[in-house]
Every structure is written in structure tokens, then in C-alpha cells.
Amino acid sequence: MTIKEAAQSAxxxxxxxxxxxxxxxxxxxxMDVIWPExxxxxxxxxxxxxxxxxxxxxxKLCSLxxxxxxxxxxxxxxxxxxxxxxxxxQPEAEGIAYA
Length: 99
Description:
The chain is mainly alpha-helical. It has helices spanning about 5-15, 20-40, 45-50, 50-65, 75-85. The protein has five helices and no strands.
């Protein structure tokens, strides 16, 4: 899976209703896509925790649980929309400025 596909998955997860399915996808994406990207860029836990894909998944998981997750959802959603577009030139190949 690529970052583009992970961003698409994060956006699609916003319509999900199965917490277990969202959690399984989240775990796979974070471990198989986000962490390798972080290592490639020399980034760490803070970068992963603030990644827009992570933010969207966490927001959805909290929503499905009836909880509240304070985040800049619109900024994360917009960033994932950019990452999900194959024909657009990505801002900095090293990634968008994450929290």
C-alpha cells in the first residue's frame, strides 16, 4: 500500500460503521505505510502521531466509540485529499507539514 492509497483509505473510513474494521485498517496502515515513511524521512513518533491519515482514523474510531477526539479534522481531511490525488504534485516529496 502507498501513502496515496492509505490517504484514500482514511477518507473512505469516514463513512464506516464497524469499529473493528476501522481499527484493523488503521493498525495495518500505520505499521505498514506511515512508520516506514517516517523512518525514510528520519521522523519519529510525533510525526506519526500528527500525520493527517492517523488523525482521520483516530477521529473516526472515537466517533464510533461515542467519544470525542479534539483535532483539526478539516485540515487533516484536506491534507488527505491532497495525498490521495495521483495527478497532483505533492507538496514536498518528504510530506506535508504535519503537527
